[in-house]
UniProtKB/TrEMBL annotation:
<dbReference type="GO" id="GO:0015562">
    <property type="term" value="F:efflux transmembrane transporter activity"/>
</dbReference>
<dbReference type="InterPro" id="IPR058625">
    <property type="entry name" value="MdtA-like_BSH"/>
</dbReference>
<protein>
    <submittedName>
        <fullName>Efflux RND transporter periplasmic adaptor subunit</fullName>
    </submittedName>
</protein>
<dbReference type="Pfam" id="PF25917">
    <property type="entry name" value="BSH_RND"/>
</dbReference>
<feature type="domain" description="Multidrug resistance protein MdtA-like barrel-sandwich hybrid">
    <location>
        <begin position="68"/>
        <end position="217"/>
    </location>
</feature>
<dbReference type="GO" id="GO:1990281">
    <property type="term" value="C:efflux pump complex"/>
</dbReference>
Length: 379
């Protein structure tokens, strides 16, 4: 009985050991060898260096302002009389047309009274002139004959002798004449005419309202010519020239215009250390207040190239490809814009990386994009 138990125990142990080795063999048979990772070679885009003249373009921006504008102010007081055209913003006027007519009736009567007084005063001296100064009587007689109360007072006859001048002045004729000329000059201020062809951009009064002396009435501009005031760095002040052609762009409409630098301020702004330049532009599609960007050609950099700023490293180097290996070449950046940088001292014909490569380093193995090489050969 005991021997039977021993045999069964030995068989059980052997069965367990056999099961263990069998399971291990099955597990080992299912293991597959891990594949060795392949080395990834990045593809890069390159371009050959061709040094040449690179224009340095300085960007600036501003709002258009009419080159010729007039702020209308009243120098006299009275009622604003209606005219042939409504005094409203957007109304066009030709040169010489009446912009504003202030009722001059009361002052006009004063001017006519002064004219009559001068006429009567000259008439009163005619008998004395005929007796004492017969040689000048004729010209004064002709003056009275041409004196029209409805017209502007004519210029006094030229006085040839001191005696004549003393006589005329002593009778108060000169003082009355110049007072009348002054009154006529003031009378002309009741009518404001357009100094040039243009458009009314602001109207602060309406017909029938009382206009007071010194009151602003509106603004009038010439729409044929505009100016763009831009601020540029003082470092380019000696490079800009009057007469330089400038490209202007409208951001919202994506249109381009051509302007000309007409003036350059000689004073540097103390706060921003910039100089104001004024660009004249003529185009019927432009309006005052439009926002434009200007691109001023300050100068040309010789023997240089222009690349994206992202290609320049912090140490002033760029990546090149030599025998399918990346290498770093030191360069001399001479001008930075928002997106571009102008470089000098780049060897001619060198293959530089034209698009940034993630994780690039000197000695990195790369391959050049084949389609790019094919396209370049076709070109």
């Amino acid at each position: 009985m005991n021997s039977r138990k021993i045999i069964l125990s030995v068989l059980g142990v052997l069965l367990i050991i056999g099961s263990f080795f069998g399971a291990k063999k099955i597990i080992d048979s299912k293991k597959t060898p891990r594949p060795r990772p392949e080395k990834v070679i990045k593809t890069v885009f390159v371009e050959k260096v061709k040094n040449g003249n690179v224009p340095i373009v300085v960007p600036a921006n501003g709002n258009l302002v009419a080159k010729r504008r007039v702020e209308l102010y009243a120098e006299v007081q009275g009622i604003f009389r209606p005219g042939k055209k409504l005094f409203k913003p957007g109304q066009e006027y030709r040169k010489g047309e009446v912009l504003i007519q202030i009722d001059p009736a009361e002052y006009y009567a004063s001017v006519q009274s002064a004219k009559s007084n001068l006429y009567n005063l000259i008439t009163s001296i005619m008998p004395d002139l005929r007796l004492d100064y017969p040689e000048v009587y004729g010209k004064w007689q002709r003056y009275l004959a041409n004196f029209d109360l409805e017209e502007s007072v004519p210029d006094l006859p030229e006085m040839a002798s001191e005696k004549e001048k003393y006589f005329i002045s002593g009778r108060g004729i000169l003082s009355n004449y110049y007072n009348l000329k002054n009154m006529e000059q003031r009378l002309s201020k009741y009518t404001i005419r357009a100094p040039f062809n243009g458009v009314l951009t602001e109207a602060l009064v309406t017909e029938g309202s009382l206009v007071r002396s010194g009151q602003k009435l509106g603004e009038f501009i010439n729409t044929s010519s505009y100016e763009l005031e831009v601020a540029i760095s003082k470092s380019y002040s000696d490079l800009l020239k009057v007469g330089e052609v400038v490209e202007l762009r409208s951001i919202d409409e994506a249109k381009t215009y051509e302007g000309t630098v007409t003036r350059i301020n000689g004073r540097v702004d103390l706060g921003s250390q910039t100089i104001n330049a004024y660009i004249e532009v003529n185009n019927p599609n432009l309006r005052e207040g439009m926002y434009l960007e200007a691109y001023l050609k300050a100068k040309e950099e010789t023997n240089a190239i222009e690349v994206n700023r992202s290609l320049l490293t912090e140490n002033g180097e760029i990546f090149v490809v030599r025998d399918s290996v990346l290498d770093l070449v030191p360069v001399n950046p001479v001008y930075f814009s928002d997106e571009k940088v102008v470089l000098k001292n780049v060897p001619e014909g060198l293959s530089i990386v034209s698009k940034p490569v993630m994780g690039a380093y000197s000695g990195m193995l790369v391959k050049v994009y084949k389609d790019q090489e094919t396209n370049k050969e076709d070109q």
